[in-house]
Design brief:
Helix content of chain A: 40-55%
Number of strands of chain B: 5
Helix content of chain B: 40-55%
Shape of chain B: flat
Number of domains of chain B: 1
Mean pLDDT of chain B: 85
Strand order of the largest sheet of chain B: 4-3-2-1-5
Distance between the termini of chain B: 4 Å
Number of helices of chain A: 5
Order of helices and strands of chain B: EEEEHHE
Radius of gyration of chain B: 18 Å
Strand content of chain A: 15-25%
Number of domains of chain A: 1
Low-confidence stretches of chain B: 131-135
Low-confidence stretches of chain A: none
Mean pLDDT of chain A: 91
Order of helices and strands of chain A: HEEEHHHH
Distance between the termini of chain A: 22 Å
Largest interface: A-B, 29 and 31 residues
Oligomer: heterodimer
Structural class of chain B: alpha+beta
Largest sheet of chain B: 5 strands, antiparallel
Largest sheet of chain A: 3 strands, antiparallel
């Protein structure tokens, strides 16, 4: 992925980490991860839509993905590149239900 | 958010403008708005929805599209029994807001039709764009 990534690479990384999109929305695919929070509540995290795969994702889109995955924004590329699906689930599962409640905030 | 679009270009994510996205005059979501990398960005402060577009009106339209798609995705999950309690709550909120907007638009359209029919009966001249039902569901910012 290099220092940055294209929207196509972002979609591929999210597909690898979360599975197929739950919806092909008007402005791009929407992804979803479900986890049990550390306080035992079933929670879902929605990611997307990721717009036009021909372009590079905007800073706002990348920040949205980082915020929804509850990772530091500066750590996003590493998480997308290096993390396994299990690692993402463990990371999200280490949060409380309150922390996973939408809307996601910046980290 | 009732400020000229150009005023938003000085807003940042750290210092956004706060307001609401309206659909046909009905509040769809409380939201913050800022300008970043040449894009107008709108983010809900109530549920996970964000949209961006180089054009300020385009960002509002994209926000409504994304909120509608979120509602449809959550509706599918609810129907298949996969939705979490939190997703059910977000779905209920979105259904309520979109239904309110649709109902409000229908009511306004009905009032418009009654007024035009009265004018026709009285033989008064009247002007105005003919709009199909539901066309008053225009997204905007407040």
């Amino acid at each position: 992925m290099g220092a940055s990534l294209t929207s196509r690479q972002l979609i591929a990384a999210l597909t690898r980490l979360t599975g197929k999109p739950v919806r092909r929305a008007k402005h791009g695919p929407m992804f979803r991860v479900t986890v049990r929070s550390r306080d035992g509540v079933d929670c879902a995290v929605a990611i997307g839509p990721i717009s036009d795969p021909r372009k590079e994702p905007s800073k706002a889109t990348l920040n949205m993905v980082a915020d929804r995955l509850r990772v530091e924004r500066r750590e996003l590329l590493n998480a997308l590149r290096e993390w396994s699906p299990g690692q993402l689930r463990r990371h999200l599962g280490s949060k409380s239900a309150a922390e996973l409640k939408p809307p996601a905030r910046g980290h | 958010m009732g400020t000229a679009a150009s005023d938003f270009t000085s807003r940042t994510e750290a210092r956004p403008s706060e307001g609401a996205v309206l659909l046909g005059g009905v509040e769809l979501s409380r939201a913050t708005r800022w300008f970043e990398d040449g894009l107008h960005v709108i983010r809900s402060t109530e549920f996970d929805c964000i949209a961006e577009d180089p054009d300020p009106d385009g960002a509002v339209t994209a926000f409504v599209d994304n909120a509608f798609d979120l509602m449809l995705a959550l509706s599918d999950l609810e129907q298949s029994g996969e939705a979490t309690e939190g997703e059910g709550e977000t779905l209920a909120l979105l259904v309520r807001r979109f239904a309110h907007a649709a109902w409000d638009a229908e009511r306004r359209e009905a009032r418009r039709q009654v007024a035009m029919s009265r004018m026709r009966r009285r033989g008064e001249p009247h002007w105005g764009r003919h709009s199909p039902a539901g066309s008053s569901l225009r997204p905007s910012l407040a």
